[in-house]
Amino acid sequence: MADNGDEEYRIQQGDYVVLKRGDIFKAVQIVPKKKIIFEKQWFFLDNAVGNLYSTTFEISSGGILQPQKLKETGNPSDLKEAGTDNRNIVDDGKSQKLTRDDIETLKEQGLKGQEIIQQLIENSSTFRDKTEYAQDKYIKKKKKKYENTVTILKPSCRILAMMYHGREPGKICHLRYDTLAQMLTLANIHAHSKVLVFETCAGLVLGSIMERMGGYGSVIQMYPGGGPVRAGVESFGFPAHFHDTLHEFPICHVNALLAGELDTTAKDPTLNLAADEEQIQPEAEQQGSPEEQNMETNAAQDQEKIEKEKRREAKVRPIFAKNVCLIIRLFRRLVIASRFHPCPVLMTLLKFLAPSRPFVVYSQYKETLIECYTKLKEQGGTVNLRLSDTWLRHYQVLPNRTHPVLLMSGGGGYLLSGTTVAMDQSKPAASQRSEEPAPKRQKVKDTEG
Amino acid sequence: MSFVEYSDCIQDGDVAIVYLSHNSVMPVKVQQGAQTQTRYGVIRHSTDLIGQPYGSKVTCSKGGWVYVLHPTPELWTVALPHRTQILYTTDIATITMMLELKPGSIVCESGTGSGSLSHAILRTIAPTGHLHTVEFHQQRAEKVQEEFAEHRVDHLVTVRNQDVCKDGFGVTGVADAIFLDIPSPWEAVGHAKAAMKRQAGGRLCSFSPCIEQVQRTCQALVDQGFEEINTLEVLLRIHDVRTVSLPLPDFGPDCRSDGVEETSPNYAAVSLKTTTPPREIPGHTGYLTFATKPRT
């Protein structure tokens, strides 16, 4: 592909991008003359415009970005002088001759990260005695600390899911990125799907679904309270036409919709007020909630929302256009991932799902999904029910130093997935083929093995 | 019916999935006048299937019943006839997200094998993407081509019967993502790089059961200038929901200090709903190594 045909690969003004250094990510928008703070450094993104995505920049003095020259070749430790083991190395904290002030001076002099690391090596009394592997490890550690580069990436579900999980897991109900991956596949999200989503994960789940749909099909986001939260969706930087596929519906009118009593024609004389409230609501959600959402904060927010909703009870917004209701009746996939108890959400929203369609429910807690499973079995109308979670482990792969990474994620949440089938009208639920063995009698051991 | 688009009713020529019970599904080629044997009896296609909505319950000749489901790549993975060891949904889901697959993606894959991952990729990249898949075994290549046609996804895929390590994927400079599931992936890394688009950001994944293969592949990736090289594994844990009855011990009547005897509790067991893990679970499928291609 010729260079002049690759605008879609170049950073533009106004783009939503993700900054990356090592394993740290941050989603920002390219805004002229706006100071960005990332990993304790501040800089401006103006110079990035026009460059290709995935370019790595150096942060020079004044916060100006410069594209990094081609990978600097040659390891600082080309010395090749190394020890065999650490039996004589004493860790007394005095092996580095440069003081913190010295290093600051070097930084002020404008020395690049690579050069600072070289200085640290030369002024370390123990570097020569370290084994080659230990030297590698030392250099990697210093690079992480003194590097002043940042890479600008095009956002994607993978990057944003990793970012949210690393930075603000509380905002996404501690949904780990591999669990999100499972959800998207188990729910068979693809172009031309009609998906019903109920999520309180800052819009990450919604955005991921939209990415997999590619602008084809439609998504209805059911939301609690005053307005849908979509900050996460913005970070994906979708083209404008993707938003044509996105609709919303407040859950406070779900029962009316199910009963066929929803008034879709009433006009809203205070449309402006409603729109303003909708804009304020998402911001309040983000500012109000701390890193770890605890129950007290949730209750307070919900209370606030309930009050706002009561004020608006009488006014039916024009969003309840007839076509939205039609879409709801025809939808084909159900995805639930929220801080709400999933059971009532699932049992109600399943009513909108046609037979032979997949659904997925995420919960941070297993017990809630056990309840869902039990209710679904009693009610019938679903098969292939599966309660699962995934175990994720990263590996360090280096010659003679390959092993799993020392720390791993303790948990990524649980999923309940299944497929709908025609509801059995005639037979009572008890005669459904049970997939659960009958509870064993007391004489026999309950656990196997 | 197609694997990339839902339809409501079963039609002649469809491939449907018959759900017999948990862990028991089978694919059925729907044909006017045909019959399918199941352990619950015979299913007559003309009367029981054609024209019925997907998701319907079908009563078989012996009186037992099954459900007929619309095919999805996930159901296909569980139902398909294995010609090789296949990838299961857990790994497939992780690969799909980490390779950043979406509608319009151009993907290269080798080996095709039994087509488990291929169907999932096609579902994700439809309607505007394309899959170039390479399989060095001639019969397998032919069989999978047949299946793609039957499943109405052949317009999205090109099958090539060649050795990816020698001849590459058959395309250059177009792929957004590459997937390798072959014995010697390090030999294909160079070809993978050539098949990928020039701009940075292309993603690569290599699946290998053995750690030695992973080590050699990572070295090849480093040598070819790939970045963000990352190896991980994902395992599925199933939780079987069970009602469990636990007996309570009888320590005898509860004697209180004021001499009043309390009778022991009159219930002898507590029932609780919990989950238990299966006795054995898959503990290893393979290591997944991902990398990003820089600009060339």
Shape of chain B: flat
Greatest interface: A-B, 75 and 80 residues
Strand line-up across the major sheet of chain B: 9-8-7-10-11-16-12-15
Strand count, sense and barrel status of the largest sheet of chain B are:
8 strands, mixed
The oligomeric state of the chains shown is: heterodimer
| CATH homology-level superfamily of the largest domain in chain B | Vaccinia Virus protein VP39
Mean pLDDT over all positions of chain B: 92
Query: What is the first-to-last residue Cα distance of chain B?
Result: 41 Å
C-alpha-based Rg of chain B, rounded: 26 Å
What is the CATH topology classification name of the largest domain in chain B? Rossmann fold
Number of helices of chain B: 8
Structural class of chain A: alpha/beta
Q: In the CATH hierarchy, what is the architecture of the largest domain in chain B at level 2?
A: 3-Layer(aba) Sandwich
* Strand elements of chain B, count: 16
Shape of chain A: elongated
Helix content of chain A: 25-40%
**What is the H/E order of chain A?**
EEEEEEHHHEHHEHEHEHHHHEHEHEEE
In the predicted model, the low-confidence regions of chain A spanning at least 5 consecutive residues are 266-297, 313-319, 427-432, 434-449
Question: Which strand-content bin applies to the residues of chain A?
Answer: 15-25%
